[in-house]
Amino acid sequence: MGVISTESPGRTPGVAARPATARVPLVKAVAVGIVALLLLLLVVQPFGWVLYNSFHDDVSGAWTLGNYARIVQSADLFEPLVNSLILAVATAVIAVGVGVPLAWLVSRTDMPFRRTIRVLTLTAFVTPSFIGATGWILLAAPNSGWLNALWRIIAGAEAGPLLNIYSMAGAIFICGLYTVPYSFTMVSSALDEMAVELEDAATTLGSGTLRTMLSITIPLATPAVIASFILSFIQGLTLFGVPAFLLTPTGIPVVTTKLAEFYQQFPPEIFLAAAYCMPLLLVTAMLFRMRRRILGRKQYVTISGKTRAGRLIRLGGARWPAFFAALLMPLFSVFLPYAALLLVSLTRAWGQGLTWENLSLHWYWWALFGNSETSTAIVNSLVYSTLGATLCVALGTVVAYFVERRVVPGAGILGAVATVPIIVPGIVLSVGFFAAYTRAPLNLYGTPMLLIAAFAATFLPIAYAHGGAILKGIGPELERAARSLGAGEGKAFLSITVPLMGGGLVSGWFLVFIPIIRELSVAVFLITPKTNVMTTLIYNAKDGGNYEAVCAMSVLLLLLTLLLVAAARPLTRLLSARRTSRKAADTAGVFPA
Amino acid sequence: MSGIRIKNLRKSFGSYTALHGIDLQVPNGTLLALLGPSGCGKSTTLQLLAGFETPTDGEIWADDVLLSSSRGVLPPEKRGISLVFQNYAVWPHKTVAENVAFGLAIRRLPKAELVERLDRALRTVRLEALRDRYPSELSGGQQQRVALARALAVEPRILLLDEPLSNLDAHLREEMRFEIRQVHDLLGITTVYVTHDQSEALVTADRIAVMKSGHLQQLGSPEDIFERPSNAFVATFIGANNELAGRSEGQGAIRVGDRVLTAPDRSGAARGAPVSLCVRPSQVRLSEAGQEAGQEAGAGGPCNVLPGVILRSAYLGEYRDVLVDIGNDQTLRAFVPPVRSYGPGMAVTAHCPVEACQILGPAA
User: What is the CA B280 to chain-centroid distance, rounded?
Assistant: First the structure.
């Protein structure tokens, strides 16, 4: 019948026997080149400069091992290392000790208000820990802290302060408090994703609830617990804001604050700082290696969305006590510090006490419209975070695509490079970007580009891993189908893969945007008055002692972050909604499945 | 010769060799089934044909155009080859019509021609009514037809089908087999159809290529493959078969345990080489031990006679499936008329007509 003719596009003699070549098409070569160049600029160069600088003398500029020798020999430089390790271990112990039982209560028991506890814990997750620390300074500073004032009312004026947040114990408390959400999230998602059948299988074999928990549930969750311990340890080791706020005033140095000191002192010892990054890098690299081995290849679980409600363990009479215990976590990490920040931000002058006359929105007006410094920082934060997150997700996704689909030989190397920043603490990255881009030919100091690039580099591993996870869920044959119909690689990527990634890309963007807007340590050496962002402004204003302004700025940052988190989910859902035509929706149920 | 020509095609992944030099021809307008168990290299062959993999050695030609060689491949989008995937690969973010029109839009056809060809393709697979649906609103069989329509709409030179029916339920699978054959008869597109299901291959194909462990075992018509298998693997893979392992006793004779049996010999093996006697269960006849061979047993000429004991007997309505222990750790399966009540433990004699037996060598 010849309804569709078998025309042969390649049968012309001119094309006959043309040798097919292995030449990489120009477009692909250009794309790979741009990606490689960006990775070079964002990761390899800053990192390389840290390494290079660490072997040079600050004064003479000559090659030396002296910086390393000084770290080992000088007690002044060795003590912060020890303090950092203490802080890290204690943080990890608290995070796991509190986070794991909390995760179990929320995911596996019939404790009341489980969803509320989960939401509040995630609120603590998005709270920058240095802002939490600020709130706790208001609550538990030795003299002025409200909780201490309350204590003196109860115990008498002569009683010493009950709490002292300006101490190692205080710093451990805050670091632990704001790291709990990490372990909570990791362990609870492990518990949530665990197949109910595994537990049911044990139950049908006659195992009781407790026995099932001990022999099935807990062993299956163990990798997540260990991994969260390691992550919390790294968090405690690399946090900058909390020790800067709580330990620096009392003269207890840790590695991150010591690094800042090298920059702030005169003359600055930038090359020594580079060498001083190395122990930190070594430990984080080692720990991430361990974590990867423990989690194996299941490091990033794809979003299958097929969560099934497991059998809940009945707590009986312990239900409410468990709830009140679980409530302590949001009380300490959200309610108390948020309330303190909010109250102070709403007073004209904090020292004058809480009276109606003293209440005002003055500081919000001041921060938003009253002076150019703060309004610039707010605009900068939004602009840099938007651009940084976009660059980060675009680059991370493309690298993930190259790796996942093996677009070019050796794509794995690009992926490895994109993962490197995960082991680089923010403060070290700041050191690296400072070293790489405050000199010719790429002197970006004082430009927004510098901060955008640094932000993008810091969270590149998240974007890369997220992009990879989405791509794993999209079968390569969807693209291959497009290829076999005549679409080139670029066209197939843009018309098939990108739309299918849709919602995933949006969630990835938020996943990067939110940490960027609250990031302090990366920005700390890179800002200039013109390129200040909210976090660095809060950090610097705190030194000035203007708590009302600090609190107003903190509340604004928190509000902004929480708003974004709230917007992220519906936006993601909107874009990844399962397509349904209107016609089919009308006849739903009529048409046989 | 026009059509697809595959010359000495080899493909290695690291130290693993998936294809050991395959030679195949698919004349224009024919439907070739690539048949074999999983891991036989049939899907690799298809990926090479589609241009997603580069051969380690060898060449693929379509008419007089070199498509692939170890020096490089013509990219998939330039081959004029459509591929239908095992899991359909229907794009979930596009409607049925958008899916089918994709390849046409890539070719920048004038609007009128695009619409005409889209309609024609939808009509060919009877999907006109569902054109505005999204794939999530379609059944598996309908998605399969979308994939087929999408592949056909661009009027490909060559159509590749990668286990297109394996995700469908048994009933639908049987129906779609005939549909695919019908579409082929209608359009006459040169087609390569990968499957592990022998009956799918027998129903749809003009020619069947049986593969195992990266080697081509046999290329021939369905009748050739079934009636004149080139080796014991092909005989066993296609249809029910008895394979009695033994050693060649020279042309036309095989020693199985302590017996020498005779059969047409197509093994070409030297005396003493390992060969097998193959006979279809439907050709084997049974009689009770001690009795003369039944009239029907002796009717078809000389027989290889094997005494044994029944191990298992299953009544299947149309026939009885009997497994006989013939000693030397070998068993023989026989499909016999259901009237006889053969039970386990019964001593019987199996009669295998010499003309129904074949002596075959092992797989390549």
Answer: 18
